[in-house]
Structure formats: structure tokens, C-alpha cells
Amino acid sequence: MTKISTNLIRIEEQIVAAKKQAHREEDNVHIIAVTKEVSVERTQEAIGAGLQHLGENRPEGLINKITAIDEPVHWHFIGSLQTRKVKQVINQIDYLHSLDRLSLAEEIEKRAIEPVKCFVQVNVSGEETKHGLNADEALSFIESLKDFTKIKVVGLMTMAPNTEDESVIRSVFKQLKQCQQQIADQGLAHAPCTELSMGMSNDFQIAVEEGATFVRVGTALVGNERGEQDEHEK
Ligand SMILES: *Cc1c(COP(=O)(O)O)cnc(C)c1O
């Protein structure tokens, strides 16, 4: 069995346990394998292990992988997207996790051939280094997308603050869940907003306990080839 398969089994078990803890046994939680730090070969290995959702955070990395890999998988763009790069990526992906401004929405509207499933990125923690709207701006931003025919708001995305304090991380995920529920309750045709993209290698279990439907896992799943190289040199 490959290393990725072993990691995947462990992560799936941890997700099952987190769902149980939160009485969410019936819910589907999708694992996005974040392959931004690994090679095409390693990405192919991840697909071989059964992963069907793959995430990249740079246009170059995404195009590189998509060009080399001809498999029926779902590609997620999880990084912040510069407006001028939209045309390069928008018709290659299934999901965009970083919709955070009107100018980006306008460029997508212009360039996309089919409607794009988008997560609106929310900066719940208010950290200045993070992209995303404030939680109290999210609803009005989403309402303003009503006439965009190429944007479907499937959910919200956030990144937890960089801290060891589990209660802070949990509180961020709880707030994103509340915000998502409030938007879903509006019943907007263009914004069903049923999904929550939150949780990475270090905090996906907490995210699942708080309602994540997509977790974005890189290091703990596919590794990070720089890190492994370092280990090799020791
Ligand atoms: C890199 C990245 C991840 C995965 O991070 P890991 O800690 O390696 O699991 C998830 N989400 C985003 C937006 C990322 O850039």
C-alpha cells in the first residue's frame, strides 16, 4: 500500500470520528487533496488512492497538473485569484474557493463558458494577512451577485488563524457555519450556499465537528516534497 493510501485511511477514520462526535453521521464530507507542494507523479498517486477532488492554489500549478493528468477528477482552485489570471483558469476548474470581490465576479462573468461553483471567502478572524470579506459583508456581497449568470454560490470558505489555541479555531469555524446558515436561509436561487470549505491538515477534525462539507488537506495526506527531501538529507 502506498503512503498516500495509508494517510487517506487514517484521515477518513478521523473524519468518521469527528462526524460521530457532532452527530453528523449522514453528512457527506469531501476530502480535497491539496497537491500544490507535490509533483504530477505524486498527484497521480493520490488519484490512484481514490481521491477525486484535487486542489491547487496557483494558476501555473493548476495548468501544469491539468495538462499532465487526464483523469475525470474535480479540480478546485483554492488560492487567491488575480483578476488578470481569471481567463487562464476559470474554464479548467469545477470549484473556486476564493471569490472575495466584485471585480473578480465581473471578470468571471465575462470569461466563464459555464456557470462556476464558487465559495465566497470570508475572513472570520479578521487577520489582516488573510483574504476574504468580513462576515457581516458576506450576505450583501452575495445578494449583489444575483444577476450574474456564471456564478453559483455553493458555500463559504475560510482559513483558520495560525494559532495553537483550539478554542479560537473552533470559534472561527462556528462563526462561518452561522454565516452560511443565515445566507442559505435566504433561499436565493443563485446562492444555495449549503457547503462549508474549512479545515486543513492541522484542524480538519475541528472543522468537521463544526460542519465542514469540504476539507482541504495537503501535508497530512500527500506530504510536501520539500519537507521529505529535508528528511532524506538528515
Ligand atoms: C495549502 C493550503 C491548504 C492545505 O494546507 P495543509 O496544511 O498542507 O493541509 C488548504 N487550503 C489552502 C487555501 C491552502 O493554501
What would your notes on this structure say?
The longest helix has 19 residues, at 3-21. By secondary structure, the chain is of the alpha/beta class. The protein has ten helices and eight strands. Helices cover 42% and strands 16% of the residues. It has a single domain (3-222), classed as Alanine racemase (TIM Barrel), CATH 3.20.20. Helix 6 (135-143) packs parallel to helix 7. Bound molecules: pyridoxal-5'-phosphate. Pyridoxal-5'-phosphate is lined by residues 34, 36, 57, 78-79, 159, 200-202, 216-220.
Features:
single chain, 234 residues, alpha/beta, TIM Barrel, 8-stranded parallel β-sheet, 10 helices, globular, binds pyridoxal-5'-phosphate
Strand content range: 15-25%
> Low-confidence spans: pLDDT under 50, at least 5 residues?
229-234
User: Number of helical runs?
Assistant: 10
CATH architecture: Alpha-Beta Barrel
What is the fourth-level CATH superfamily?
Alanine racemase
Number of strands: 8
Distance between the termini: 25 Å
**Mean residue pLDDT:** 94
Helix content: 40-55%
Give the ligands present: pyridoxal-5'-phosphate
Integer tally of domains:
1
CATH-assigned fold name: TIM Barrel
Order of helices and strands: HEHEHEHEHEHEHEHEHH
Describe the biggest sheet? Answer: 8 strands, parallel
Rg, rounded, reads 17 Å
Shape: globular
Strand neighbour order, sheet with most strands: 7-6-5-4-3-2-1-8
Q: Structural class of the helix and strand makeup? A: alpha/beta
Family: Belongs to the pyridoxal phosphate-binding protein YggS/PROSC family.
Organism: Lysinibacillus contaminans
InterPro entries: Ala_racemase_N, PLP-binding_barrel, PyrdxlP_homeostasis
Function: Pyridoxal 5'-phosphate (PLP)-binding protein, which is involved in PLP homeostasis.
